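Regression test case RT-17, inverse folding.

Input:
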């Protein structure tokens, strides 16, 4: 759901959108033929069109204005058989799961041996979606949680470094201030557009090789690829 409500110019976080699209679009490249993928926390299914090879199934906790899932349930109790999917993805979802170890267990259970789990999760984000916002994830936490359920890290990469963090904070402050004055829908885009342009450019500079190590340590979040260990 997070994608739909927070990545437009109207709400401000547009400068992160290209990274999200780039990473999700790489999922197809892991498969030579059609594959079955479960999108946990699918919202309005904004990623479905990017996964052209997939037999896509969306899961979310309800059907509402912000979600039209194929399966309605919690990530902590997925009503699917063991080894049901070739791939599973979560995008800004795990922070809303209080029983996070149960969620990881369920992901591993319904994923086939040799299947892939793709996760794009935040390390830094504003408190949102109360009262269901519980965690932020550093790489060490994600890797350890995954390892406990036989998911082996293949690689991880960043989205948003130091400059993106600053831009994110600027937009959050402006959005909250204008919302309290009830003028955010009218004046918000006037501020969001230049901030998006400026901090997108600064963020690209921050990805240059000379800044790379620091950039990776101060990321807004990370894109992970895990593989389920066969016959574990």
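Golden output:
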């Amino acid at each position: 759901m997070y994608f739909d409500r927070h990545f437009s110019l109207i709400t401000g976080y547009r400068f992160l959108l290209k990274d999200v699209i780039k990473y999700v679009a790489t999922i197809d490249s892991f498969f030579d033929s059609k594959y079955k993928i479960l999108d946990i926390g699918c919202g309005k299914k904004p990623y479905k069109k990017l996964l052209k090879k997939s037999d896509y199934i969306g899961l979310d906790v309800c059907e509402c204005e912000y979600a039209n899932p194929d399966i309605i349930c919690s990530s902590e109790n997925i009503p699917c058989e063991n080894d049901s999917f070739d791939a599973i993805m979560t995008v800004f979802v795990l922070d809303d799961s209080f029983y996070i170890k149960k969620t990881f267990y369920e992901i591993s259970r319904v994923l086939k041996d040799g299947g892939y789990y793709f996760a794009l999760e935040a390390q830094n984000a504003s408190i949102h979606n109360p009262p269901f916002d519980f965690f932020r994830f550093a790489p060490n936490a994600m890797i350890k949680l995954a390892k406990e359920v036989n998911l082996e890290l293949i690689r991880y990469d960043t989205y948003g470094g130091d400059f993106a963090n600053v831009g994110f904070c600027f937009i959050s402050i402006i959005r909250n201030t204008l919302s309290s004055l009830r003028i955010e829908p009218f004046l918000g885009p006037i501020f969001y557009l230049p901030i998006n342009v400026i901090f997108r450019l600064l963020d690209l500079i921050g990805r240059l090789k000379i800044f790379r190590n620091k950039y990776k340590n101060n990321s807004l979040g990370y894109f992970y690829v895990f593989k389920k260990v066969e016959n574990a």
